[in-house]
């Protein structure tokens, strides 16, 4: 899934000794540093991971059959725990409608427990990676100061999953489960957070952005539709189609959530998506969204300045 950094078999148990994990830190502090990011091993691994999953889900429904490994089950338990904590932390009464401060209480719990939660997911011989990998989990649920959430947080969750692949906790044959089970559940929990605590969109481009909060499910979701016999891009603006097929398609789940959260004509509140509905084929939509993701998220300093680099997602230049 990503080139894992495994040592030869005979010294595998020694990996903890031969390899030093580190707590990730920010490396991109000024706009000129962006070149360092685009040339980094982290960038190559991250985009490779996104594109491998994009290929893996091509033409497949959320409801199709796929292998569910023990690690995937453990990740589902972890996300279930985050979900349960939302129920245990109701929003508080406050004058401001947005950014409910109860979110900070919820976040503090994750901050405290993240390392332990991640430890449980890792194989025993890789527990040393928990402090490094847990950072990406904490970064993936929004910002507790601003009580906002955006595509940078979503990217941290993809980075979290990428790291789990790099240490061998997730494998190539987990691809479908990573997107359809784990990432889909993550989206459910994020939508619940956004709704419950009225989180602000981070760095929102308003009506000119694709979506206030997410991007990846539109990429992977459009790939699911490639070569679909009947459903074309023009159909996703039809509410009947959305209601009938959203259980099978990530893209439509996103549209359904937008329709629940926004009022007024779709063309006005989601202009970019409205434009996309005019593209003739899903493979064109998919390619266009990948280009847009690179340009609007991965190459934007305000997003990438928050990205953290460690031993698994390294700032070192990529090996040619």
Provide structural commentary.
Helices cover 53% and strands 2% of the residues. It is built from 15 helices and 4 strands. A two-stranded antiparallel sheet has the order 1-4. The longest helix is centred in the middle third of the chain and has 22 residues, at 175-196. The two termini are 18 Å apart. Residues 5-17 have low confidence and may be disordered.
Tally of alpha and pi helices: 15
SSE-based structural type: mainly alpha
Q: Distance N terminus to C terminus?
A: 18 Å
Topology, number of strands: 4
Explain briefly what this protein structure is.
Keywords: Acetylation, ATP-binding, Cytoplasm, Isomerase, Magnesium, Metal-binding, Nucleotide-binding, Nucleus, Rotamase. Helices cover 53% and strands 2% of the residues. The protein has 15 helices and 4 strands.
What layout of secondary structure does this protein have?
Blueprint: H1 15-18, E1 25-26, H2 34-38, H3 41-56, H4 70-87, H5 102-121, H6 130-139, E2 148-149, H7 151-166, H8 175-196, E3 200-201, H9 216-224, H10 239-245, H11 250-261, H12 266-269, H13 271-276, H14 282-298, H15 301-304, E4 308-309
Parallel strand pairs: 2-3
Antiparallel strand pairs: 1-4
Considering the chains and any ligands shown, give keywords for the structure:
320 residues; two-stranded antiparallel sheet; two-stranded parallel sheet; 15 helices; globular; cytoplasm; rotamase; metal-binding; Serine/threonine-protein phosphatase 2A activator
